[in-house]
Amino acid sequence: MNDLRFNVAQLLRDVVGAARRVEVAANLYELAPELSGDDRSRVLRGAVRMLNTNAGILVQGRLTGTATLACARCLEPVTTPLEVEIEELFRPTIDLLTGRAIVPEEEDRALWIDEHHILDLTEVVRQDALLAAPLNAVCSEACRGLCPTCGQNLNEGPCDCKPEPDPRWGPLTALLDDRDNDRADDQNV
Ligand SMILES: [Zn+2]
Ligand SMILES: [Zn+2]
Fold first, then answer.
1. Residue 139, helix vs strand vs coil
2. Ligand 2: distance of its center to the CA of 106 in Å?
């Protein structure tokens, strides 16, 4: 179970500029299963610094691990390094001295510190991990991808589909097809 919730009451009571370093380990499968393949034990690890500022708690840090994505060409799983940068300002929703509720200017409730002074990194880490994942991961630069007609993985060998004829050569190809397929191919190149 991920527990990315931290009680920051002490830090909020401290002077502006006070900071705390927190180790973070986030199970990627629970957080963003689309990045973890079938591996339920994959963990993003790192540390964040929590800084008391006038406006709230600034959280900065970096978590690293690996992600498994589908190859953009052949859809086979590809494992790539994942570096998740975090930099967010979390706002208090209660005044520590008076106990009064504050409505933060920040609209995103994922960035609100709750009334028990719990700062929850879960949603921020999840979103930053998704943003950090490469959009066009490929299993290899030489990946041949899938045949658009039959879906065969062309890295495993050619399929039986004929290549699409170039429409510019259509009439000529039709003419030559009657005679000799191989020769027509030679002339079209
Ligand atoms: Zn591939
Ligand atoms: Zn095919």
1. coil
2. 52
